[in-house]
Specification:
Chains A, B: This is Dihydrofolate reductase family protein. The structure is a homodimer. The first copy, chain A, has helices spanning about 35-40, 45-50, 60-65, 75-80, 130-145, 155-160; strands spanning about 5-10, 15-20, 70-75, 105-110, 115-120, 125-130, 145-150, 170-175, 180-185, 195-200, 205-215. Chain A is an alpha/beta fold and about 220 residues long. The first copy, chain A, has a single domain (about 5-80, about 100-215), classed as 3-Layer(aba) Sandwich (Dihydrofolate Reductase, subunit A), CATH 3.40.430. In chain A, strands 5-6-4-3-7-1-8-11-10 form a 9-stranded mixed β-sheet, with helices on both faces. The longest helix of chain A has 12 residues, at about 130-145. Chain A is globular, with a radius of gyration of 17 Å.
């Protein structure tokens, strides 16, 4: 059975995966780029920008696990764009350019389904109104033997964790106190009982936590 | 000038330094002993129990910093005991035995001052109704050239951090999600700007964070 994975999901010390006041100009709200700074120098991020090279070491190693063996992604609507409610006729095709970094089917959870959006490079956005279980069934079918990535944002990851649908969770704790925004851990009391957890600190200052589902 | 230090202060992944439903039987509430498990095997804790030996390694190294160079402690009333409001005539002398592990003056913050309580081994509890600044002035005078430790609980540490009175903060992040209780980080947005922060993961599973106040 294919696994369900979350990668490179950054939170502040106080557990916020995004700040307050999110907008088109500030997808992470008042957190700005601080949650993803550890990621910027990695070859994985640089390749997304069409550049080569980058750091080696523990941040780069974790970052690179993102795409390996992934056959589909599920994301919340807020990760796709800043619009809320009915889709405006604004030509929005996601935060990415015409060749998004996913290169797989991507299932966007929304209460406002619309026709699929086929991009370059193998990424097709499917807009579906579905529960986590229903979305996962569709994504698994699209992924074949490969794994399904839960791409975020915060609410989507939290919902899949609450529904006990996640097999592997990689969280990056950034040493900042955001104070406001969207919290990852809310409603997940006792989560540790379902996972083996490892922590490793990086010289960059962040701590990588991996949660691997315990064998039944 | 003597420094103000916090040591061995454990929190859950979601930032709780104590669980909900605290009582005489459960000083950490529903968290039970889970927040302090990393500490139990250290020589520092074993010595508090009158035992010798214990673990070596990073948990033991951090734990041992607790008493070195400390001349006084400030603690919140809830760390001293489970009573609230007026002091009952119940002979309560703290969670510890007649020779508490502090061996210095200890200033207990309470809205209900009472005469000092002199214990064996150099520990004297002073019960004062004071702001963080006022309490610190008294503790500094008692400590002489030595440092002042803020001993907890959560609210007391948070108040001293909010008042920017802490020079060194050692936090231990335990990989559990408590879900309810008292949060350390609330109201401390931007705390990282005042400190240099290091993280180191321990084989025990916890992560030690040290916050050292930046030179002005």
């Amino acid at each position: 059975m294919s696994r369900v994975r979350v990668h490179n999901f950054a939170i502040s010390l106080d557990g916020y995966g995004a700040g307050a006041e999110q907008s088109l100009e500030a997808p992470f709200g008042h957190a700005g780029g601080r949650l993803m700074q550890w990621f910027m120098g990695t070859p994985t991020f640089r390749a997304m920008q069409g550049a080569s090279g980058g750091s080696e070491g523990v941040d780069a190693a974790f970052a690179s696990r993102w795409a390996t063996g992934i056959g589909a992604e599920i994301m919340g609507r807020n990760k796709f764009g800043p619009q809320r409610g009915e889709w405006p006729d604004d030509g929005w095709q996601g935060w990415w350019d015409d060749d998004p970094p996913f290169h797989t089917p991507v299932f966007v959870l929304t209460h406002h389904p619309r026709p699929p959006l086929e991009m370059k490079g193998g990424t097709t956005f499917h807009f579906i109104d579905a529960t986590p279980e229903e979305a996962l069934a569709q994504a698994r079918e699209a992924a074949g033997d490969d794994d399904v990535r839960i791409g975020g944002g915060v609410e989507t990851v939290r919902e899949f964790l609450a529904a006990d649908l996640v097999d592997h969770l990689h969280v990056v704790v950034v040493p900042i106190v955001l104070g406001r925004g969207e919290r990852l851990w809310d409603g997940l009391e006792g989560l540790e009982e379902r996972f083996d957890i490892e922590a490793v600190a990086s010289p960059s200052g962040v701590t990588h936590l991996t949660f691997s589902r315990r064998a039944a």
